[in-house]
Amino acid sequence: PSPALILHKTSHLHNQTPAHTRTHAHIYTIPLSKDQTGNLNSSRPPTDQPTHIQKHSLVSAPPFELMAVLSNQFTFSIGKMGSQDASETPALATNPDFIFFTDFDGTITLEDSNDFLTDNVGYGFENRRAGNLLVLEGKKHFRDSFREMMDSVSMPFDRCVDYLKANVKLDPAFKDFYAWCRARNVPVVIISGGMRPIIRALLVQWLGEAEVDGHIQIVSNEVAPREGKASINEEGGWRIVYHDDSVHGHDKSIELRKYSSLPTRPVMFYAGDGVSDLSAARETDLLFAKRDKDLVAYCEKEGISFVTFNDFSDIHETVKQIVEGKISVKDAARGRIH
């Protein structure tokens, strides 16, 4: 076996169950010699990064088998390791070079499902819009404004889902974009300030259950019975359960930082349209903001770079050019799509 030092290890492959977790170890070799006690020593400390260091192919195996796999190939000692819990970054499972994060309501859909419920069976457009403006002006937290919106809807939850399935439409260009991403190993991760059961129901209607449950990660808020109610499917029976304790209810930047904080990571795209996307606006390599929506106004006010889009055909073209190496992220960020 070749003498070796493991200088760096990452562990990030995960597929729902511990039995399917796989650990990746980057193996570097440098000449080792035995000292007078018979121990292996390197001629120079590994942190000096000697010019004769060699990087070998990535070794991959379930964690409990990794050491056995390595011992068959190398004599080694283990230095300080850095790791990322694979369950925290499932979009890395296929080792992508790019990840596409996106809002759901009003971005993938033509209508915002939560706005649609509030405007039509809740306290109405004027009250909702007044709350949104207070959030944009920094006078109210999104968490409080959105809870007021959802609390104004007393329709049983199963009826809400059916109502939205009959009225909310998918961006016509999204299916082609999603299929293109799947074919090119660009994971699509939905990070939403809405409610997961509604998002899943709508996606299943458009893309199919196997596709949604097998290939699309949804990070969102949940729904639970209201106190004193036996079921979410009775009048006034449900309430929103926020993803975290932040002022946003769901601070999307927290999810994005799990990826952006990694020492080596894929290029990160994010698409959004409204006030729930404010926390995500600074946490991506390229931000797509829907034309004439609240996110554009916020980014202009805060001096955050973004690219406008009308629909997913605009996003598709830009992402395709970047993935194919025709333009850089920096080039794309210099101008807007018109």
From TrEMBL:
Domain of life: Eukaryota
Gene3D superfamilies documented for this protein: 3.90.1470.20, HAD superfamily/HAD-like
Hydrolase in keyword set: yes
GO molecular function (one): phosphatase activity
Entry-linked Pfam families: HAD (PF12710)
Gene that encodes the chain: ptf1
Source taxonomy: Eukaryota, Fungi, Dikarya, Ascomycota, Pezizomycotina
Keywords: Hydrolase
Name of this protein: Pdp3-interacting factor 1
Species: Colletotrichum tanaceti
SUPFAM superfamilies: HAD-like
